[in-house]
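in:
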Protein backbone atom coordinates (compact mmCIF):
# COMPACT_ATOMS: atom_id res chain seq x y z
CA UNK A 1 0.00 0.00 0.00
CA UNK A 2 1.44 3.32 -1.03
CA UNK A 3 -0.58 5.49 1.40
CA UNK A 4 -2.32 8.78 0.92
CA UNK A 5 -0.41 11.28 -1.21
CA UNK A 6 0.64 14.51 0.46
CA UNK A 7 2.46 17.61 -0.74
CA UNK A 8 5.48 16.43 1.24
CA UNK A 9 5.68 13.50 -1.22
CA UNK A 10 6.40 15.85 -4.11
CA UNK A 11 9.86 15.81 -5.68
CA UNK A 12 12.54 17.71 -3.80
CA UNK A 13 12.26 21.43 -4.37
CA UNK A 14 8.74 21.33 -5.83
CA UNK A 15 7.32 23.43 -3.00
CA UNK A 16 10.18 25.95 -2.93
CA UNK A 17 9.12 29.57 -3.44
CA UNK A 18 5.51 28.44 -3.78
CA UNK A 19 6.01 27.37 -7.39
CA UNK A 20 3.80 24.28 -7.01
CA UNK A 21 0.79 26.37 -6.01
CA UNK A 22 1.49 29.57 -7.94
CA UNK A 23 2.89 28.24 -11.22
CA UNK A 24 2.72 24.45 -11.67
CA UNK A 25 -0.95 23.95 -10.75
CA UNK A 26 -2.18 27.04 -12.66
CA UNK A 27 -0.29 25.80 -15.74
CA UNK A 28 -1.87 22.38 -15.38
CA UNK A 29 -5.40 23.79 -14.95
CA UNK A 30 -4.84 26.02 -17.95
CA UNK A 31 -4.00 22.93 -20.00
CA UNK A 32 -7.01 20.99 -18.71
CA UNK A 33 -9.29 23.97 -19.42
CA UNK A 34 -8.07 24.07 -23.01
CA UNK A 35 -7.80 20.34 -23.58
CA UNK A 36 -10.28 17.90 -25.05
CA UNK A 37 -10.51 16.13 -21.68
CA UNK A 38 -13.10 17.83 -19.52
CA UNK A 39 -14.01 14.77 -17.49
CA UNK A 40 -11.54 12.01 -18.18
CA UNK A 41 -7.89 12.50 -19.07
CA UNK A 42 -6.09 9.48 -20.53
CA UNK A 43 -3.19 8.52 -18.23
CA UNK A 44 -0.57 8.71 -20.98
CA UNK A 45 -1.77 12.18 -21.96
CA UNK A 46 -1.60 13.37 -18.35
CA UNK A 47 1.84 11.77 -17.87
CA UNK A 48 3.25 13.65 -20.87
CA UNK A 49 1.58 16.90 -19.83
CA UNK A 50 2.95 16.66 -16.29
CA UNK A 51 6.45 16.16 -17.63
CA UNK A 52 6.21 19.14 -19.99
CA UNK A 53 4.82 21.42 -17.29
CA UNK A 54 7.26 20.19 -14.64
CA UNK A 55 10.19 20.85 -16.97
CA UNK A 56 8.85 24.30 -17.90
CA UNK A 57 8.38 25.30 -14.26
CA UNK A 58 11.32 23.60 -12.54
CA UNK A 59 13.74 22.67 -15.31
CA UNK A 60 14.34 19.18 -16.65
CA UNK A 61 17.09 18.35 -14.14
CA UNK A 62 14.99 18.90 -10.99
CA UNK A 63 12.53 16.04 -10.97
CA UNK A 64 11.36 12.72 -12.22
CA UNK A 65 11.34 12.07 -15.93
CA UNK A 66 8.67 9.38 -15.60
CA UNK A 67 5.30 10.64 -14.41
CA UNK A 68 3.60 7.27 -14.63
CA UNK A 69 1.10 6.55 -11.84
CA UNK A 70 2.93 3.21 -11.41
CA UNK A 71 6.40 4.70 -11.10
CA UNK A 72 8.39 7.02 -8.88
CA UNK A 73 5.90 9.83 -9.36
CA UNK A 74 2.87 7.94 -8.01
CA UNK A 75 2.24 10.53 -5.29
CA UNK A 76 2.65 13.43 -7.68
CA UNK A 77 0.15 11.79 -10.03
CA UNK A 78 -2.34 11.30 -7.17
CA UNK A 79 -1.98 14.87 -5.93
CA UNK A 80 -2.45 16.23 -9.44
CA UNK A 81 -5.60 14.13 -9.97
CA UNK A 82 -7.00 15.45 -6.69
CA UNK A 83 -6.25 19.06 -7.67
CA UNK A 84 -7.93 18.57 -11.05
CA UNK A 85 -10.98 17.15 -9.27
CA UNK A 86 -11.07 20.21 -6.98
CA UNK A 87 -10.72 22.53 -9.99
CA UNK A 88 -13.71 20.84 -11.68
CA UNK A 89 -15.76 20.95 -8.48
CA UNK A 90 -15.18 24.70 -8.22
CA UNK A 91 -17.32 25.22 -11.32
CA UNK A 92 -20.32 23.65 -9.57
CA UNK A 93 -19.87 25.36 -6.22
CA UNK A 94 -19.40 28.72 -7.95
CA UNK A 95 -22.59 28.14 -9.96
CA UNK A 96 -24.53 27.41 -6.75
CA UNK A 97 -23.20 30.57 -5.08
CA UNK A 98 -24.04 32.75 -8.06
CA UNK A 99 -27.55 31.38 -8.39
CA UNK A 100 -28.22 31.75 -4.65
CA UNK A 101 -26.97 35.35 -4.73
CA UNK A 102 -29.13 36.07 -7.78
CA UNK A 103 -32.29 34.76 -6.13
CA UNK A 104 -31.50 36.54 -2.85
CA UNK A 105 -30.94 39.89 -4.60
CA UNK A 106 -33.92 39.74 -6.98
CA UNK A 107 -37.23 40.44 -5.22
CA UNK A 108 -39.41 38.79 -7.86
CA UNK A 109 -37.68 35.42 -7.24
CA UNK A 110 -38.39 34.98 -3.52
CA UNK A 111 -40.50 31.81 -3.68
CA UNK A 112 -39.70 28.26 -4.71
CA UNK A 113 -42.36 28.54 -7.41
CA UNK A 114 -40.68 31.57 -9.01
CA UNK A 115 -37.30 29.79 -8.77
CA UNK A 116 -38.77 26.87 -10.71
CA UNK A 117 -40.32 29.14 -13.34
CA UNK A 118 -37.02 30.93 -13.79
CA UNK A 119 -35.13 27.63 -14.12
CA UNK A 120 -37.62 26.34 -16.68
CA UNK A 121 -37.23 29.51 -18.74
CA UNK A 122 -33.42 29.47 -18.59
CA UNK A 123 -33.14 25.79 -19.47
CA UNK A 124 -35.37 26.20 -22.54
CA UNK A 125 -33.02 26.26 -25.53
CA UNK A 126 -30.10 26.77 -23.10
CA UNK A 127 -30.98 30.44 -22.68
CA UNK A 128 -28.61 30.65 -19.69
CA UNK A 129 -25.64 30.40 -22.07
CA UNK A 130 -26.46 33.56 -24.03
CA UNK A 131 -25.92 37.21 -23.25
CA UNK A 132 -29.07 38.11 -25.23
CA UNK A 133 -31.08 35.00 -26.08
CA UNK A 134 -33.71 37.13 -27.85
CA UNK A 135 -31.20 38.36 -30.43
CA UNK A 136 -31.22 35.73 -33.19
CA UNK A 137 -28.36 37.34 -35.13
CA UNK A 138 -25.86 37.76 -32.30
CA UNK A 139 -27.09 36.14 -29.08
CA UNK A 140 -23.61 36.17 -27.52
CA UNK A 141 -22.91 32.51 -26.82
CA UNK A 142 -20.99 31.93 -23.56
CA UNK A 143 -21.37 35.60 -22.66
CA UNK A 144 -24.20 35.37 -20.14
CA UNK A 145 -23.57 36.77 -16.69
CA UNK A 146 -23.66 33.24 -15.21
CA UNK A 147 -21.12 31.81 -17.59
CA UNK A 148 -18.77 34.77 -17.26
CA UNK A 149 -18.89 34.75 -13.45
CA UNK A 150 -18.14 31.04 -13.30
CA UNK A 151 -15.45 31.39 -15.95
CA UNK A 152 -13.85 34.04 -13.75
CA UNK A 153 -13.14 31.32 -11.18
CA UNK A 154 -11.24 29.44 -13.88
CA UNK A 155 -9.25 32.55 -14.80
CA UNK A 156 -8.35 32.96 -11.15
CA UNK A 157 -7.23 29.31 -10.98
CA UNK A 158 -4.88 29.73 -13.96
CA UNK A 159 -3.38 33.02 -12.85
CA UNK A 160 0.38 32.54 -12.71
CA UNK A 161 0.56 29.90 -15.45
CA UNK A 162 3.60 29.67 -17.67
CA UNK A 163 3.71 29.01 -21.37
CA UNK A 164 4.61 25.41 -22.13
CA UNK A 165 5.62 25.28 -25.78
CA UNK A 166 5.06 21.52 -26.10
CA UNK A 167 1.39 22.03 -25.17
CA UNK A 168 0.56 24.94 -27.46
CA UNK A 169 -1.98 23.99 -30.12
CA UNK A 170 -2.11 26.74 -32.70
CA UNK A 171 -5.48 27.41 -34.27
CA UNK A 172 -7.42 25.74 -31.49
CA UNK A 173 -10.05 27.97 -29.86
CA UNK A 174 -9.13 28.76 -26.28
CA UNK A 175 -10.90 27.69 -23.13
CA UNK A 176 -13.36 25.28 -24.77
CA UNK A 177 -13.34 22.79 -21.91
CA UNK A 178 -13.49 25.47 -19.22
CA UNK A 179 -16.47 27.12 -20.94
CA UNK A 180 -18.19 23.76 -21.40
CA UNK A 181 -17.71 22.99 -17.70
CA UNK A 182 -19.10 26.41 -16.80
CA UNK A 183 -22.18 25.78 -18.96
CA UNK A 184 -22.65 22.29 -17.51
CA UNK A 185 -22.39 23.70 -13.98
CA UNK A 186 -25.07 26.32 -14.64
CA UNK A 187 -27.31 23.76 -16.32
CA UNK A 188 -27.00 21.39 -13.37
CA UNK A 189 -27.62 24.08 -10.76
CA UNK A 190 -30.52 25.90 -12.39
Amino acid sequence: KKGKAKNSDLPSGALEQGQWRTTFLPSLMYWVGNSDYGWSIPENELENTLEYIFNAVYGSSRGPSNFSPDGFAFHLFCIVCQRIHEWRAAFGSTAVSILMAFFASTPKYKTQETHEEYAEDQLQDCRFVYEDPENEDQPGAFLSEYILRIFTSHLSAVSGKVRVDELVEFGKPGYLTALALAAAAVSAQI
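note: The chain has a mean pLDDT of 87.
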